[in-house]
Structure formats: structure tokens, C-alpha cells
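ok new one. same drill as before - C-alpha cells go in, u give me an amino acid for every spot. 446 of them this time. try not to just spam alanines like last time pls lmao
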């Protein structure tokens, strides 16, 4: 059976599920910290953040839906089958057990529990909390067929109710006015916000969640490719608009909070201070509920997506065993702490994001060049040599002792010759040049 249309309520349900998959730990802690740092430069910083935090995820969903790809590996195989496999594995490990999933446990602990625990006991209680957290995630991830019910019908609405209580209070009774911008937000607020959006991991996650949305649409009886593509962008747009509204409110909350609560080293602690400012001890309970629900639903979605992917790549291990393995690895990494996870995630993101962005754009523009493989291959090849140095620069920014003289010379050469390199966008011109060369080669070969 193939339905001719989908009701708005179904779009809303699928969109709410998608929002629930996206909106987790990073989506709460990074915009509120951006607000504190951007201050008077609130608007350009927020707009830059929204480009990467909601614009790219929507494009990623569309790249999967409009091209008819059966997931990220299929999309990446337009470059080369080996690239499709390697890039998919790297991306799923990043949004999975290495960074994003452990963060879903450390953020709620840092916000809701750490402020009330003595420093000497933090390690023990983090281990206990993350153990209970991943036991719950493991249980709910065992049945992926019910993910839309778990996340779309129950966890996400409950999370939104509690979050909007805090948002509405912060609007009715603002903590203060905007302060002066800090650091890179003084002179480069837009591009700094743009790069800060990388930390949400949502553009990468969209390439993984795209197939989840498509499967949810197929479960509604829609099988025609054009109708699936139409339903995908409508559900994606619903989710992205909801995310954008909430991002704006959370960023505003951070921008008005400095005079009332002071500055902190990460967004998790800022959220805790804001909740305490408005609600006192009850604020800690409210915030703990908000953060746990947000991170729980995202963690379930990530564990489910990653387990399905790795089971597809290596089916000799069952889906349930992958769920167990990913939960164990995520639990282990979570116990290194939130700050360490963020520190080592940034270099990986600076490496992967340019590749993901170029792949998404090429997929959306593929009808213009008839999806010729040389265009994909050369554009990604050129981008790779820029993004790997971007990752290296981010790494030595956090760990200066890891400098390598040879790589330093390459980085300096890029800085001297590539347009936009100082803004973190040095990959744009090489990607365009690579695509043009690939297109010309395809025409000559034909």
C-alpha cells in the first residue's frame, strides 16, 4: 500500500521525533555559553550559530531524503565505496561512543548533581550516575522499532514542558542586560558563532538520522520516492524551526546572565547557576529533569542509529550486542569528564565538518552535474587536505606540546595562500576547484 498523503499530525510527530534525536547535551550547553561570550554581539553570533546548528542539519536530512540514499554509507559511496565505509565509520564513532554519547551522560551530571557534591567525591558519583544512565539507555535501545514512540510521543514533549518553564521565566524576569563581547566574539562574532555550531554535532548526526526519518515515513505507508522526499523536508523543517526558536531563547538567557550569576568554564555550569538564580534549590531539581530527559532521548537515538549501522557493516555481531558494546564504551569514556570530552572532540569536528559539509552540498547539487563520481571524488580529495590541518590546528590549540614542525609549515602555507583560512573556512576554494576539475575530467572521459 502507498498512501497519497500524510497528515500534519504525522509530520509533527516525525518532526518531534527528529527534534528529540537532535536536541541533547550540546544543544543546551553551547548556545547558553555563546550568549555569555557574545554579549552585545548577540545577533551576529546567534545567526552564525544557527547556520551550522540548524541550517546544515536540515541540508543533511534533505541530502539523504532527496537523493534517495539508503543512509550515509550509500551517500558517501558516491565518492568511492571505500570512502563511504571509512567516512561513515569515523562519523558514527564521533557522534557515537567516542564523543556525543558519553557527553549525554556527563552533561546532566555536571548540571544537576556535580554542584552539590564535594570535589573529592565527583569521580565516584559520576561513575554511579553514568552507570545508571546507560543501563536505562541500554534497555530502551533494545527495540529500535519503538523509537518514534519513546522519543516523539513521550520523552520530547516532557522535556519541552520543563524547558519552557525555565525559558518563560527568563523572558518575563530577565537577569540583566547584555554585557560586552569576550574573546573572538569581539571582532569575529558571526564566524565564531558559525564554528561554535560545529560542537552540537548535528550536521554530522543529520547524515545518520536521515535514514531514521525515512524509515519512520515508510512505516506510515509512504513508499513513493517523491512522496518520501516531500515528507522528509516537511518533517525536517518542523524540527529545525523548533530547534531555532529554542536556540534563540537559550542564547538570550546566557547573554543576560553574566551580571547575575557570573561566568563559568562551560555551559553546563551556566545552566545550573541560572536555574539556581530563579528557583533556588527547586531549580536544581527542575534543571536535572530537563537535562536528563534531553540527554536520555538523544542517547537512545544515537545508540540505536550506531548499532544499526555497525550491525549492517558487520552483521556477524547482533544488534543487541552492539547496543551493549556501545553502552560499555560510552560509559568508560564518560568517566573522563565533560571538559576532557569537549577538548578532544573539537579537533575531530574541525576535521570531519568540512568533509561533511562538502558532501552534503554536492549531494543536493548532484542533479546539476548528473551525480558524476569524479566531481564528488576530487572535491572531497581537495577538501581532505585542508580539513586535516584544521583538525591539527584545533588539537595544538588544546594540547600545544603536540606541535609537529612539518605540519606547522603546511598550516602557515595555507594561512598565507588560502582565502578565508583565518576564518576557519579555508576549505571552500579548494572544494570548488576540486569540483570543477572533476566535472571537466568527467566530460573529457565521456
Amino acid at each position: 500500500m502507498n498512501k497519497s498523503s500524510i497528515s500534519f499530525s504525522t509530520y509533527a510527530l516525525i518532526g518531534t521525533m527528529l527534534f528529540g534525536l537532535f536536541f541533547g547535551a550540546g544543544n543546551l550547553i553551547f548556545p547558553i555559553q555563546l550568549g555569555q561570550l557574545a554579549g552585545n554581539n548577540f545577533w551576529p553570533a546567534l545567526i552564525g550559530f544557527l547556520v551550522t546548528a540548524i541550517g546544515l542539519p536540515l541540508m543533511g536530512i534533505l541530502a539523504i531524503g532527496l537523493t534517495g540514499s539508503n543512509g550515509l554509507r550509500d551517500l558517501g559511496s558516491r565518492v568511492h565505496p571505500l570512502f563511504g565505509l571509512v567516512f561513515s565509520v569515523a562519523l558514527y564513532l564521533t557522534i557515537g561512543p567516542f564523543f556525543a554519547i558519553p557527553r549525554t551522560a556527563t552533561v546532566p551530571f555536571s548540571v544537576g548533581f556535580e554542584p552539590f557534591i564535594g570535589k573529592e567525591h565527583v569521580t565516584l558519583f559520576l561513575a554511579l550516575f553514568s552507570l545508571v544512565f546507560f543501563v536505562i539507555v541500554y534497555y530502551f535501545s533494545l527495540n529500535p522499532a519503538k523509537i518514534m514512540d519513546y522519543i516523539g510521543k513521550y520523552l520530547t514533549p516532557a522535556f519541552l514542558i520543563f524547558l519552557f518553564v525555565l525559558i518563560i521565566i527568563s523572558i518575563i524576569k530577565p537577569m540583566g542586560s547584555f554585557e560586552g563581547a569576550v574573546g573572538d566574539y569581539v571582532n569575529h562574532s558571526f564566524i565564531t558563532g558559525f564554528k561554535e555550531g560545529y560542537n552540537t554535532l548535528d550536521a554530522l548526526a543529520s547524515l545518520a538520522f536521515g535514514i531514521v526519518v525515512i524509515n519512520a515515513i515508510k512505516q506510515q505507508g509512504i513508499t513513493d520516492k517523491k512522496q518520501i522526499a516531500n515528507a522528509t523536508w516537511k518533517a525536517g523543517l518542523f524540527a529545525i524551526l523548533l530547534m531555532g526558536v529554542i536556540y534563540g531563547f537559550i542564547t538570550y538567557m546566557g547573554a543576560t546572565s553574566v551580571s547575575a550569576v557570573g561566568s563559568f568554564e562551560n555551559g553546563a555550569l551556566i545552566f545550573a547557576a541560572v536555574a539556581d538564580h530563579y528557583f533556588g534549590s527547586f531549580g536544581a531539581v527542575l534543571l536535572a529533569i530537563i537535562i536528563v530527559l534531553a540527554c536520555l532521548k538523544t542517547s537512545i537515538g544515537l545508540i540505536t542509529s550506531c548499532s544499526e549501522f555497525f550491525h549492517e557493516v558487520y552483521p556477524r555481531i547482533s544488534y543487541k550486542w552492539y547496543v551493549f558494546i556501545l553502552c560499555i564504551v560510552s560509559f568508560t569514556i564518560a568517566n573522563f569528564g565533560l571538559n576532557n570530552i569537549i577538548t578532544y572532540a573539537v579537533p575531530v569536528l574541525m576535521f570531519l565538518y568540512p568533509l561533511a559539509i562538502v558532501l552534503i552540498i554536492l549531494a543536493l547539487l548532484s542533479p546539476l552535474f548528473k551525480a558524476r563520481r569524479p566531481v564528488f571524488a576530487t572535491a572531497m580529495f581537495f577538501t581532505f587536505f585542508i580539513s586535516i590541518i584544521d583538525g591539527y590546528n584545533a588539537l595544538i590549540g588544546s594540547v600545544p606540546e603536540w606541535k609537529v614542525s612539518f605540519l606547522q609549515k603546511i598550516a602557515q602555507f595555507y594561512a598565507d595562500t588560502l582565502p578565508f583560512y583565518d576564518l576557519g573556512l579555508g576549505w571552500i576554494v579548494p572544494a570548488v576547484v576540486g569540483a570543477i576539475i572533476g566535472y571537466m575530467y568527467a566530460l573529457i572521459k565521456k
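The first helix runs from residue 8 to 22. and btw The chain has a mean pLDDT of 89.
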